[in-house]
């Protein structure tokens, strides 16, 4: 086990926690009571208002009941004396914690496989990282092209994987857990059946093994996009990139309607298959 692999595992885990915590604090704590300005579904909230303790005058649940802000990290509910389960699925804390750890293990294992010298898996990906001359020649253009190829690879596989998750029997056994939340909030993206989550992790990390001549910078850029969009897709906060390239309300529509907007993170595959629904 290499120290770099352990560091990648820790970075993946802590990075997810940091981004989710920032979103939760920035909107669900700091702008509580102003949901109509920023929330995708203002009338639907869960797991954020608690009735014990002191709070600011505007810090209530909409019915005049004072509350306090509680960090929503699912792992805390495994050790809290009084777990926060307002609107949460009974398996939320266990599944979400397990999925975060497994995803981070995938990141560490991907790094470890590379460092072990398994060039068969990575092709030129390995030489780009360890060969100084190849590293210096790698241009912004090659990084951009590599990231686009990785995103395209993932987008195609994820779309058909997600459609398969909505087959009646598969949905009942696996995907129904994720759709417990009709209006997702921070940390809800982790609530997936572990078997489904494992399958998606195989897709998520597959470009490192399957996309030829992928520079390491391109793979890191790809993973940054996927990680950020995975959190933002389920944060319940209105965010939109210029020209409508990305909109957090796109996936929010899927949680409301089930039969549209299966793609992640961009709507291209839905547009091609006629399953796109405007947000």
From TrEMBL:
The chain crosses the membrane at residues 6-25, 135-161. GO terms for molecular function: iron ion binding; oxidoreductase activity. GO terms for biological process: lipid biosynthetic process. InterPro entries: Fatty_acid_hydroxylase, Sterol_Desaturase_Related. It holds the Pfam family FA_hydroxylase. Residues 38-61 are annotated as: Disordered. It is found in: Membrane. Keywords: Membrane, Transmembrane, Transmembrane helix. One of its GO terms (cellular component) is membrane. Residues 148-275 form the Fatty acid hydroxylase domain. Belongs to the sterol desaturase family. This is C-4 sterol methyl oxidase. It comes from Micromonas commoda (strain RCC299 / NOUM17 / CCMP2709) (Picoplanktonic green alga). The lineage of its organism: Eukaryota, Viridiplantae, Chlorophyta, Mamiellophyceae, Mamiellales.
């Amino acid at each position: 086990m290499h120290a770099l692999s352990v560091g990648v595992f820790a970075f993946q885990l802590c990075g997810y926690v940091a981004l989710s915590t920032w979103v939760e604090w920035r909107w669900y704590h700091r702008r509580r009571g102003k949901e109509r300005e920023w929330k995708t579904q203002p009338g639907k909230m869960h797991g954020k208002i608690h009735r014990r303790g002191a709070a600011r005058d505007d810090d209530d649940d909409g019915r005049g009941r004072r509350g306090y802000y509680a960090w929503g990290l699912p792992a805390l509910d495994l050790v809290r004396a009084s777990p926060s389960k307002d609107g949460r699925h009974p398996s939320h804390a266990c599944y979400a914690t397990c999925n975060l750890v497994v995803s981070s293990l995938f990141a560490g294992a991907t790094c470890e496989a590379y460092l072990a010298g398994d060039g068969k898996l990575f092709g030129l990906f390995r030489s780009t990282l360890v060969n100084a001359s190849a590293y210096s020649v790698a241009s912004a253009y090659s990084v951009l092209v590599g990231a686009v190829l990785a995103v395209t690879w993932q987008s195609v596989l994820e779309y058909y994987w997600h459609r398969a998750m909505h087959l009646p029997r598969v949905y009942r056994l696996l995907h129904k857990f994720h759709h417990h939340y009709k209006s997702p909030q921070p940390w809800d993206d982790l609530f997936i059946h572990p078997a489904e989550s494992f399958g998606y992790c195989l897709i998520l990390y597959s470009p490192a093994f399957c996309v030829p001549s992928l520079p390491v910078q391109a793979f890191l850029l790809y993973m940054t996009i996927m990680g950020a969009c995975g959190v933002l897709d389920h944060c319940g906060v209105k965010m939109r990139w210029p020209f409508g390239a990305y909109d957090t309300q796109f996936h929010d529509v899927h949680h409301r309607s089930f039969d549209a907007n299966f793609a992640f993170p961009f709507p291209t595959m839905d547009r091609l298959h006629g399953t796109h629904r405007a947000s």
